[in-house]
């Protein structure tokens, strides 16, 4: 477990943050600009002098200086050594690991991040996404106890961001290291995070699993794009007619244009406004996906809209946005069974 509490004041800003998280997987630190995400990450790293405490798996790290914490830190813009090749940048911390400490496998980490073709290059010719991959590799090669990533994609354009995301995904599990990931981009949280710590005005306001964070209508993750649900399951083999099955808890959703090999664990995203409800299965419609759902709660969103919080077979949650008029017509109420008609399903990873 990681248990942390930090208090710090500077003119115009106070940090008062506390959390407890498992020491595995990816925890996103999410909140608006200026709420203190970077400051909290810097407190974890030991780069800020804050009051409080920091425990990692029972060890008290709070008084330890930065280098003795052995955390990897990657900033918004990778600061690579310009006089060294990619290989020597990667090996920089690895070579300096204390004698007797087990060394991460260089080739393995290079492979995880797809860095082989770049190894003998200088850093000047690297794209922004490649630089970040090298910075993450360099941090992992120091065998960090925690990996701290501070908005590593924020300086990249959307194409570079799309390219780098698959390399970052799954890294925490492969390397067996817990990752703290600062971002204000909901799509990065949905794609990468297992858990989310929400922050506002210097305070940690809530800690949730991604599923919990996406199952409440007032989730800060929904502010820009509206409510959505995330389902986890397995991709099946694509059919000749263009459909690919996504299977979860014995149910199937059909995706179109998935173009991916079957057998992978994936997440899919369903926008609540793309989900309609019906009292019985509907025939003669173009909608591919209909799933039974049980109504857990109805939330009045104002402006004649109702957000229906539903539970699918197996327990995963599905949000549907319907008009208040339709909710009345269907007499939707808690505990009721109905069918979700899902217009679009997007693969997240
Ligand atoms: N070195 C500094 N000296 C003084 N104030 C600072 C310093 N760095 C940050 N601040 C202030 O501290 C507050 C928290 O900043 P912080 O960078 O932690 O927020 P953030 O949530 O990471 O923001 P962003 O998403 O924009 O990076 C802000 O009010 C910021 O202006």
UniProtKB/TrEMBL annotation:
GO terms for cellular component: membrane. Gene3D superfamilies: 2.40.50.100, P-loop containing nucleotide triphosphate hydrolases. It holds the Pfam family TOBE. Keywords: ATP-binding, Cell inner membrane, Cell membrane, Membrane, Molybdenum, Nucleotide-binding, Translocase, Transport. The keyword Transcription does not apply. It comes from the Bacteria. The keyword Transport applies. Residues 284-349 form the Mop domain. Residues 4-226 form the ABC transporter domain. GO terms for molecular function: ABC-type transporter activity; ATP binding; ATP hydrolysis activity; molybdate ion transmembrane transporter activity. InterPro entries: AAA+_ATPase, ABC_transporter-like_ATP-bd, ABC_transporter-like_CS, Mo/tungstate-bd_C_term_dom, ModC_ABC_ATP-bd, Molybdenum_import_ModC, Mop_domain, P-loop_NTPase. SMART domains: AAA. PANTHER family: ABC TRANSPORTER I FAMILY MEMBER 10. This is Molybdenum ABC transporter ATP-binding protein. It comes from Oceanimonas pelagia. The lineage of its organism: Bacteria, Pseudomonadati, Pseudomonadota, Gammaproteobacteria, Aeromonadales. The gene is modC.
């Amino acid at each position: 477990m990681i248990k942390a509490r930090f208090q710090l004041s500077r003119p115009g800003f106070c940090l008062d943050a506390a959390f407890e998280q498992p020491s595995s997987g990816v925890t996103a630190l999410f909140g608006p600009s200026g709420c203190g995400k970077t400051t909290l990450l810097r407190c974890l790293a030991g780069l800020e002098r804050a009051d409080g405490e920091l425990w990692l798996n029972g060890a008290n790290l709070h008084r330890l200086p930065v280098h003795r914490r052995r955390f990897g830190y990657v900033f918004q813009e990778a600061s690579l050594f310009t006089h060294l090749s990619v290989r020597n940048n990667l090996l920089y911390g690895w070579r300096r690991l204390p004698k007797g400490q087990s060394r991460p496998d260089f080739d393995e980490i290079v492979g995880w991040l797809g860095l082989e073709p770049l190894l003998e290059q200088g850093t000047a010719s690297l794209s922004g996404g490649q630089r970040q991959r090298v910075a993450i590799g360099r941090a992992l090669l120091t065998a960090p106890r925690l990996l701290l990533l501070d908005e590593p994609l924020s300086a990249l354009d959307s194409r570079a961001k799309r390219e780098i995301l698959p390399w970052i995904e799954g890294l925490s599990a492969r390397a067996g290291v817990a990752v703290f990931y600062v971002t204000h981009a909901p799509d990065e949280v949905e794609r990468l995070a297992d858990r989310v710590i929400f922050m506002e005005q210097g305070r940690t306001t809530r800690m949730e699993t991604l599923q919990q964070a996406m199952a409440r209508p007032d989730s800060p993750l929904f502010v820009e794009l509206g409510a959505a649900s995330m389902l986890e399951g397995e991709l099946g083999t694509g059919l000749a007619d263009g459909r690919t099955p996504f299977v979860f808890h014995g149910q199937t959703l059909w995706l179109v244009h998935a173009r991916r090999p079957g057998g992978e664990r994936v997440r899919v995203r369903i926008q609540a406004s793309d989900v309609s409800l019906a009292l019985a299965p509907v025939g003669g419609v173009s909608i591919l996906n209909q799933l039974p759902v049980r109504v857990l709660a109805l939330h009045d969103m104002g402006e004649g809209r109702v957000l229906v919080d539903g539970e699918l077979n197996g327990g995963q949650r599905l949000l549907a946005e319907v008009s208040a008029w339709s909710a009345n017509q269907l007499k939707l109420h808690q505990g009721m069974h109905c069918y979700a008609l899902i217009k679009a399903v997007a693969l997240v990873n």
